[in-house]
Amino acid sequence: MSEDILNPQIWVDADACPNVIKEILFRAAERTKVMVTFVANQDVRVPPSPYLRAVRVAHGFDVADDTIAARMAAGDLVITADIPLAATVVETGGIALNPRGELYTDVNVRQRLAMRNFMEELRGSGVAIGGPASLSQAERQAFAGQLDRWLSQRIARQSNL
Question: What's the half-sphere exposure (Cβ side, CA atoms, 13 Å) at 127?
Fold first, then answer.
């Protein structure tokens, strides 16, 4: 069995990840001793910890996403609001979680991808579409709940080995 499968880790698409979500991840890494890697095309400050690391990638379209997709393994958790990255993660056996607490599945990620493409077409034709709302307290709690479920499953799998 591969070491990656035995020790799933968390990858964070950190360029657009809200700070409050990063804080939740910092605490979870320390509490559970799971490796959390923040990938961004700018510096990401992480507290000193053997369980936290930041990877800075070159500027460019989808460079951070491509880096995560190339390095993650089946069973890893990827935190992202990027629908194409989430689709790749799900397709390769990873778990994709939106910072708003939505867990992506085979079904809903395809629906989100279709909606994203439709909205891109609208924007391309000049239709003004607003951005996402601020992260609510309920969404923060939903994220923390999904993260805790993944961490609990990871711990249970390791204790069964």
Answer: 8
Per the DSSP assignment, residues forming a β-bridge with 52 are: 36
pLDDT, tens digit (0-9, with 9 covering 90-100), for 7-53: 899 999 998 899 999 999 999 999 999 999 999 999 999 999 999 99
57-106 pLDDT tens trace = 999 888 999 999 999 999 999 999 988 999 999 999 999 999 999 999 98
Locate tokens 């923390």: which residue? 144
Question: What phi, psi does 101 have (nearest 5°)?
Answer: 100, 5
As a whole number of angstroms, the distance between CA 122 and CA 114 comes to: 13
Tally: H helices and E strands in the chain: 6, 5
Among 100, 103, 82, residue whose Cα is nearest residue 137:
100
The tokens for 42 are 């700018």
Q: What is the DSSP letter of 40?
A: E
pTM: 0.84
What does the CA dihedral 82, 24, 58, 105 come to, rounded to 10 degrees? Answer: -30
Q: One-letter amino acid identity for 100?
A: R
